[in-house]
Design brief:
19% strand, globular, alpha/beta, 161 residues, 7 helices, 8 strands
Amino acid sequence: MTVSFGWGPVEARILAEAAACVVVVDVLSFTTAVVAASLRNHGAVARWLLDRGHGTAERPLAVIASGERWPDGSLRPALEDLLGAGAVLSALRGTHPLTPEATAAATLWDATEDPVAALHGCDSGRELYEYGYPQDVAVAAETDSSTTVPVLVDGAFQEAP
C-alpha cells in the first residue's frame, strides 16, 4: 500500500495499522482526523503530504471519507466526503501509486464538472438547507480557498507548519 482510500471509522482503524499518516475528509462537519481535509483545503493538504513524503512505500498514506450515519448508527456514504477525498487523491495521483479504490475516488473528482453544485444538491447539503444552515454549505463549497492544514496533536488541532 502506498496511497489507499476507505470509508468511515472501521476502515480507518484497519488502514491506519499500515499507514504512516491518515487523512480524514469531512466536508460538511468537524472531523477528528490526524490530518483534516475538506474541499476548502484539499490542495494545501496534498502539498503538505507530498512535502513530507507521505504516500510512498516508506510512508504509506490512507485517505478516509468520513461519511454520515443512518438512524441505526451504520455508515451512510456521503457524496461530499467522497468528492473531498477524491480531490486530495487526484492531486497525488500523478506522483504516487493509488489503490484501485483511491483511483476511483480521484476519478470521480476529476469527472465532476461542477463540484459546488454537487455539494449543494447532495443529501447532506440539502439536509443543511432544510435545517436552516445554507451558509454552512456555501462556506464548505469554497473549493481550495484555505491554506490551513489542521493536524491533531495531543488531542487538539494545530495548524501544520
